[in-house]
Amino acid sequence: MAREGGLIRWQWQGYDRNHRDRLNLVLHMLAVPAFIAGVLAAVTSLVHGQWLAAGVSVVVAVAAFAVQGVGHKREAEAPIPFDGPADFIGRVLIEQFITFPRFVLSGGWLNNLISADSNSRNRHG
């Protein structure tokens, strides 16, 4: 599927809407760095011929990604479904290495966390 302005721009435009649930935000803050570390450790381990370490690192990355999937199920607005394997890989890598770090550094993560807290208080108290 063609994404107007490219994948990075397209993903950024809708990112805020798909990351509003408090638990999902916290899970992403923990799991995205674990995913990045797992992928980088896997690549480094493979370069050095350390197959077991590479395997363990891949398991860490997959588990971190699965945790994010649990968080996404809590969102009121679900992400757009993947359009095949290439779309899946591209979107996952862009989100993990570019879009989520950008979301945190831009203040979007904290703004949504604060909004989620106030929305929760309004519903429960």
Question: What can you see in these coordinates?
Answer:
With 125 residues, this protein is mainly alpha-helical. It has one domain (21-77, 84-117). The chain contains 5 helices and no strands. It has helices at residues 7-15, 22-47, 51-72, 85-105, 108-124. Helix 1 packs across helix 4 (85-105) and helix 2 (22-47) packs antiparallel against helix 3. It is globular. The model has no long low-confidence stretch (mean pLDDT 91). This is DUF962 domain-containing protein. It holds the Pfam family Mpo1-like. Keywords: Membrane, Transmembrane, Transmembrane helix.
Cα-to-Cα separation, first versus last residue? 44 Å
Instruction: Kindly name the structural category.
Output: mainly alpha
Overall outline = globular
Radius of gyration: 16 Å
Q: What's the helix-strand series?
A: HHHHH
Main beta sheet: none
Number of domains: 1
- What's the number of helices? 5
Low-confidence stretches: none
Secondary structure: elements and pairs:
Blueprint: H1 7-15, H2 22-47, H3 51-72, H4 85-105, H5 108-124
Helix pairs in contact: 1-4, 2-3
Can you give me a brief rundown of this structure?
The chain is mainly α and 125 residues long. It is built from 5 helices and no strands. It is globular.
Descriptors:
mainly alpha, 125 residues, globular, 5 helices
